[in-house]
Amino acid sequence: MRHLNSRRLLALTLSIILLAVQPAILSVRAQTVVDFTTIARATVYVTSVYEVAGRRVVSCTASGTLVSADGLILTNAHAVVDSERCRVDDIAISVAVRLNEPPVLTYYADVVSYDLGLDLAVLRIARLIDGRQVEKGTLSLPFVELGDSRQLRLDDTITVFGYEGIGDQTVTLSRGTIIGFIAEARGGEQAWLKTSATILGPMAGGGAYNSAGQLIGIPTTAPASDPAAVLDCRQVQDTNGDGLVDSRDRCIPVGGFINALRPAHLARGLVRAARLGIVDGGHIASAQVAAAAAAAGEPSFGPIFFAPSINEAGQPTMFVTVHQRVTARASGAGAGACGATGDR
After folding, report:
1. Is pLDDT larger for residue 213 or for residue 225?
2. Range of 313's domain?
3. Within its chain, how far is the Cα of 245 from the centroid?
4. Which of 63, 64, 138, 263 could make a disulfide contact with 206, Cβ separation 3.0–4.6 Å?
């Protein structure tokens, strides 16, 4: 009898131990399983082009990440916003049809929101490669979720996805750790994330992921003002029309190595605004204010932001006061002192 009771007691003890340990095992498994295939398919190749004498010429390239099933793409602003450094008439999007092959040119996209100071932009897929419009609700693309980059700590492991070539290579990943943070007045204590991961220039605009597979950073590098100052600059297209691709063609700057990421939490506002449709060409829509001003025959300014200084991109470092609307009844009296831009 004693022997039987001992067996029952042992069996009961083992059952209790298994019940206690099993949830922990399942929890660890759930945390460590990351769908890298979906992340790779959500990584796109972005090519900005402009027209010269009826021909399309590549001006800038970057990686990007799908952050919604209906075609919102998060990438770097310097590669998609029209400027002297990067002329943009159209933005072509190439997607990974097969992960062991280069991406395939499939869509054209439009910029819907951007912030030059953060060098972040959100695109929306708008047209197929043959020019047909993409109807609302017809896309069902692989995408990733934004994580909380403010929870990152030193030595956290991250995985970076992007395209390391000029559209002629497959999606690439690189692993590393968080090795530091850089503060800015506008972005707070974690305005930049420093990483040990090896990130090539063309991977700028791609995505960095935490151990749960959430997007927590965007590899970011500013373009150089001239090709001579770029560490990696490549001729990939016959831009002068002589039938050859050589040193006389325009060089596409792709930058050197990158070791900094913009935290994903700084992009949340841009992504949310794009999802809600409250932006127009990167700016907050103010159709009602403009219509009211036109009906009254009066110029209007708004919103007006006051800041103590601006950064190199011309963006305010900190907002002090915001006036939602100012109407000038005199000949613009007082408006010039604010340094604001207005619509007449």
Report:
1. 213
2. 286-338
3. 31
4. 63
